[in-house]
Amino acid sequence: MYPRTDRTFCTRWSMRSRPGTRLTRVGFTYSGIRRGLYMSLYESEYFAATAVHAGSLRPETYPLIAFAKRKIPIFIMVGTADPFFPLAEVRATRDELAKHGLTVQLTEIPNHNHWYYDLAPKINRDAWDFLKKYELSADPRYEQYQFKK
């Protein structure tokens, strides 16, 4: 069983690959940021790839990118009319991730706001099309961190 929290989930599949090498992370909105982008940067050797709907990093969190030991592929989808994740902020996230050598694909959905459910079938299909291209070159490695308050 894999963790399922809020609207974020992990999925594992094998398509003629070693078991565990296609573990991916998907999330949207604030779960997308906190559990999708952040976790993928911390655990870049554990997840093969990440897909996020409606998410970005704020400039003060850019130092987290340095935690990515592997240049994990990241797919970000956002509506051009999303009131919570301004397009400029999402584009800046893409640019900052790319500046650090990560593969980032940004899909801007014209006139789409923050509401995932109206476009869920398309968003899910696009995320899956991105994720299924990637697998880890080695067995997944989990890094344990100790955060101080």
Layout of strands and helices, then pairs:
Blueprint: E1 4-5, E2 8-11, E3 24-28, H1 29-42, E4 49-53, E5 74-79, H2 87-99, E6 104-109, H3 120-131
Parallel strand pairs: 3-4, 4-5, 5-6
Antiparallel strand pairs: 1-2, 2-3
Plain-language structure description:
The structure is a single chain. By secondary structure, the chain is α/β, with parallel strands linked by helices. It has one domain: Alpha/Beta hydrolase fold, catalytic domain (Rossmann fold). The chain contains 3 helices and 6 strands; from the N terminus they run βββαββαβα. A 6-stranded mixed sheet has the order 1-2-3-4-5-6, with helices on both faces. The N and C termini lie far apart (30 Å).
Quick one: CATH class?
A: Alpha Beta
Sheet-strand content, in percent, reads 15-25%
What is the straight-line distance between the termini?
Answer: 30 Å
Low-pLDDT windows of residues? 1-18
Based on CA inertia axes, which overall geometry fits? globular
CATH superfamily name? Answer: Alpha/Beta hydrolase fold, catalytic domain
Strand order of the largest sheet: 1-2-3-4-5-6
Q: Average pLDDT, to the nearest integer?
A: 82
How many helix segments?
3
- Largest sheet, strands/sense/barrel: 6 strands, mixed
Fill in the CATH topology. Answer: Rossmann fold
Instruction: Spell out the helices and strands N to C.
Output: EEEHEEHEH
Number of strands: 6
Gyration radius from CA atoms, angstroms: 15 Å
